[in-house]
């Protein structure tokens, strides 16, 4: 029988000690302090678990691969990599997950919830990692550096794609003609040469294009825009290629 009830949320407990520990979730009280780093905890058991990050103790061992863990919950999650068990089910699309936290993140793709907000431009994100990467667009921070040419990037995925310019790797292969590409987006663009798909349409004359860049270039024939300017004579051009060709008249 659960005799002890929380006056804040009406949750009930069988022991008074459990109720007292629960009350700290409402008051924010954290009476247990780590002597190593001064971090505080609401429960003594949480402090004990935390102390293992300082001592290096990992008492929970996987019987399959002997990998060790600080917490029992971490071991249980790890064991699922061996068993293939995915107990957490998305109620919208029935996709399964090994851990609860990835399911919570995934659920936001259905609900549209974006709890992480950029303070600089108010743009919102469903994942903290995406917000952190976005913030670099404001700060200019580029933490990922190419060891070959020292070029820096704000995202690891961009560095990986760049590295292919050095290695020559082209992992994306066209199934129609076996042509290879370093980036998936380039393969998708190429595939339209086989399908005749032209998804980019000019709203002025209804002409269609395979690539967005070609549409943008075409639109300038309507607007008269010439964004590429020669630094030598200030002559303007609609296309970058035309400017490059013109620049040779100054150097020759």
Account of the 3D structure:
This protein is of the alpha+beta class and 252 residues long. It folds into four domains: 4-55, Classic Zinc Finger (Double Stranded RNA Binding Domain, 2-Layer Sandwich), CATH 3.30.160; 61-138, Classic Zinc Finger (Double Stranded RNA Binding Domain, 2-Layer Sandwich); 146-195, Double Stranded RNA Binding Domain (2-Layer Sandwich); 200-251, Double Stranded RNA Binding Domain. It has nine helices and 18 strands. A hairpin with a 6-residue loop joins strand 5 (60-61) and strand 6 (68-69). It is elongated and about 90 Å long.
Q: Given the C-alpha coordinates, what overall shape results?
A: elongated
Please state the CA-atom Rg, rounded to the nearest Å: 29 Å
Structural class from helices and strands? alpha+beta
> Total helix count?
9
CATH class of the largest domain: Alpha Beta
In short:
By secondary structure, this protein is of the alpha+beta class.
Provide key terms for this protein.
single chain; 252 residues; alpha+beta; Double Stranded RNA Binding Domain; two-stranded antiparallel sheet; two-stranded antiparallel ribbon; 9 helices; 18 strands; 43% helix; zinc
């Amino acid at each position: 029988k659960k005799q002890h009830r929380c006056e804040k949320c009406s949750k009930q407990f069988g022991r008074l000690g459990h109720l007292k520990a629960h009350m700290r979730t409402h008051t924010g009280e954290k009476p247990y302090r780590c002597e190593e780093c001064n971090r505080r905890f609401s429960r003594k058991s949480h402090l004990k678990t935390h102390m293992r990050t300082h001592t290096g103790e990992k008492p929970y061992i996987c019987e399959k691969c002997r990998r060790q863990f600080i917490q029992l919950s971490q071991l249980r999650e790890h064991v699922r990599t061996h068993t293939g068990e995915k107990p957490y089910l998305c109620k919208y699309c029935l996709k399964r997950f090994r851990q609860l936290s990835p399911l919570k993140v995934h659920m936001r793709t259905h609900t549209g919830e974006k709890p992480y907000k950029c303070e600089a431009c108010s743009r919102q994100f469903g994942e903290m990692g995406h917000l952190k990467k976005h913030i670099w667009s404001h700060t200019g921070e580029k933490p990922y550096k190419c060891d070959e040419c020292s070029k820096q990037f704000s995202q690891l995925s961009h560095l990986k794609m760049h590295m292919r310019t050095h290695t020559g790797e082209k992992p994306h292969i066209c199934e129609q003609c076996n042509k290879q590409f370093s980036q998936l987006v380039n393969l998708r663009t190429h595939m339209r040469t086989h399908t005749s798909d032209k998804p980019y349409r000019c709203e002025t004359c209804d002409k269609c294009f395979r690539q967005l860049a070609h549409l943008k270039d075409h639109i300038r024939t309507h607007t008269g825009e010439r964004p590429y300017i020669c630094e030598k004579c200030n002559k303007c051009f609609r296309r970058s290629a035309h400017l490059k060709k013109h620049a040779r008249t100054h150097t020759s």
